[in-house]
Write a structure and sequence with these properties.
Helix content is 15%, strand content 27%. The chain is of the alpha/beta class. The mean pLDDT is 94.
Length: 219
């Protein structure tokens, strides 16, 4: 296995989903780290629901500006051409279909592309945030997550058990074990992480998995 953490491997692989000129929204948590792995020479425009277009990498310790934050209240940097606008304009951009790609975290995803990432019944939540708008308005939805829960149970399910953020909205899933696309007849296994076999992914996945011409150990 590679020396970096599984989280780093996931976000580095997710950064390969970016394309030059894309307008991208990075969800709270792990997806925000993708900003640190944008390929050199590529121009993408990172958007945040709180009204900023032009997010840069995370600041180094001691260089944080408390007035510059993303939707998750993390301190960020801005690009030289960054622009600011109201939250209403930000959501108009999302709802109007002007975001090419959103990369979101998840608690559960199922074989139909349903996504659960905003609450666990009985636990306090701050609110649903912008995820419901993003999955409905973004042109492409990529999910980054751990493949299994701490108890070893799969988080890639036949059917989500938690309240849904959106139905049939996920296009691609990137985990610490594999990359999968949501297809009409199940999840198509495209790639495995370094040191992970196709059989290991099958064992860790509850959802129906289609494994043909899989690229092994690509990230």
């Amino acid at each position: 296995m590679k020396s970096e953490s599984s989280k780093e491997r996931i976000v580095q692989r997710a950064a390969r989903e970016l394309k030059n000129g894309f307008y991208v929204n990075l969800g709270i948590g792990m997806p925000t780290l993708v900003a640190n792995y944008i390929p050199k020479g590529m121009e993408v425009f990172l958007q945040s629901e709180n009204g900023l277009l032009g997010i840069g990498p995370f600041p180094y310790e001691g260089e944080e500006d408390p007035d510059l934050i993303n939707a998750g209240k993390q301190t960020i940097t801005e690009t030289p051409d960054a622009s600011y606008f109201s939250s209403a304009d930000s959501f108009a951009m999302i709802r109007g279909g002007h975001v090419d790609l959103t990369i979101l975290g998840a608690m559960e995803v199922d074989e139909a592309g349903n996504l659960a990432n905003w609450m666990i019944p009985g636990k306090m939540v701050k609110g649903m945030g912008g995820a419901m708008d993003l999955v409905a308005g973004a042109k492409r939805v990529v999910v980054t997550m751990q493949h299994c829960a701490k108890d070893g149970s799969s988080k890639i399910l036949k059917k989500c058990t938690l309240p849904l953020t959106g139905k049939k909205v996920v296009h691609r899933i990137i985990t610490d074990l594999a990359v999968m696309d949501v297809m009409p007849d199940g999840l198509q296994l495209l790639e495995t992480a370094e040191g992970v076999s196709v059989e290991a992914v099958k064992k860790a996945t509850e959802a129906k998995l289609i494994a043909m011409d899989v690229k092994v150990g690509t990230y």
